[in-house]
Design brief:
about 130 residues, 2 strands
Length: about 130
């Protein structure tokens, strides 16, 4: 696509919990981005791990793998992108930046699994347990 077709903008709307929007806005501010720029950039970056093996967005077929790191070298790319953007970071800072949303994703997953009645929290058992359903 060239010219007007690839610069035409359209609205995309989604709903997230208030705390998530606040986290995204703070992160966007830290990066000197608008919230729209931040969300668009993060979605594009995140898509790299979810592309099918059919080879889209410049990837060759088979380049994306399944498992904990789809696409293979995303952690290396994330580190180099982060250091290029933020400058020198120590180990703890790298870990914090790279895992910032894991707790939020875990909380969302636990809530969804509880809503689907696939697990519940049991004080007696000392944690989350699968339901029999």
């Amino acid at each position: 696509m060239t010219g007007e077709a690839d610069s035409e903008r359209t609205r995309v709307q989604t709903y997230v919990p208030r705390y998530q929007k606040d986290v995204w806005q703070d992160h966007a501010d830290d990066l000197g981005m608008t919230q729209s720029e931040f969300v668009r950039t993060m979605v594009q970056a995140g898509r790299r791990g979810f592309l099918s093996s059919g080879g889209r967005d410049g990837q060759t077929p088979g380049e994306v793998s399944s498992g904990p790191d789809p696409g293979g070298k995303h952690i290396e790319e994330a580190v180099t992108d982060l250091l290029g953007r933020e400058g020198p970071l120590d180990w703890d800072q790298l870990v914090e930046h790279l895992t910032a949303d894991v707790e939020d994703r875990l909380d969302d997953a636990l809530a969804a699994l509880q809503d689907a009645n696939r697990l519940r929290y049991s004080g007696r058992d000392g944690g989350y347990v699968l339901t029999d359903e």
